[in-house]
Structure formats: C-alpha cells, structure tokens
UniProtKB/TrEMBL annotation:
<feature type="transmembrane region" description="Helical">
    <location>
        <begin position="29"/>
        <end position="47"/>
    </location>
</feature>
<dbReference type="InterPro" id="IPR000066">
    <property type="entry name" value="Antenna_a/b"/>
</dbReference>
<dbReference type="GO" id="GO:0046872">
    <property type="term" value="F:metal ion binding"/>
</dbReference>
<comment type="function">
    <text>Antenna complexes are light-harvesting systems, which transfer the excitation energy to the reaction centers.</text>
</comment>
<keyword id="KW-1133">Transmembrane helix</keyword>
<dbReference type="GO" id="GO:0019684">
    <property type="term" value="P:photosynthesis, light reaction"/>
</dbReference>
<keyword id="KW-0437">Light-harvesting polypeptide</keyword>
<protein>
    <submittedName>
        <fullName>Light-harvesting protein</fullName>
    </submittedName>
</protein>
<keyword id="KW-0460">Magnesium</keyword>
<keyword id="KW-0157">Chromophore</keyword>
<dbReference type="GO" id="GO:0030077">
    <property type="term" value="C:plasma membrane light-harvesting complex"/>
</dbReference>
<dbReference type="InterPro" id="IPR002362">
    <property type="entry name" value="LHB-1/5"/>
</dbReference>
<keyword id="KW-1003">Cell membrane</keyword>
<dbReference type="InterPro" id="IPR023623">
    <property type="entry name" value="Antenna_beta_CS"/>
</dbReference>
<keyword id="KW-0076">Bacteriochlorophyll</keyword>
<dbReference type="InterPro" id="IPR023624">
    <property type="entry name" value="Antenna_beta_dom_sf"/>
</dbReference>
<dbReference type="InterPro" id="IPR035889">
    <property type="entry name" value="Light-harvesting_complex"/>
</dbReference>
Amino acid sequence: MADDKVGPTGLTVAESEEIHRSLIQGTQIFGMIAAFAHLLAYIYSPWLK
C-alpha cells in the first residue's frame, strides 16, 4: 500500500480528504460566528450612521 500515500506527510488519500473536510467545515463555522458577531456589534453600536 505504499502507492496510497500522499506526499511527505505519509497520509493516505482518504485521511487527507477527511482532514480537508474538517478544515473547511471549521472555517465555515468560524465565518458564520464572525458574521453573527459583526451583525450584533452593528446592531448594538451602529457605526457609519
């Protein structure tokens, strides 16, 4: 199964795809929380008005 390894990390294709999915999902969740926090900050202390 040495052919299944990806690059210098030694991860398999399935392992690297799983890590990638988790990273993307974490980034999306962080982005949603950040957008919500900015919305709350705008509502409670409107700037540029």
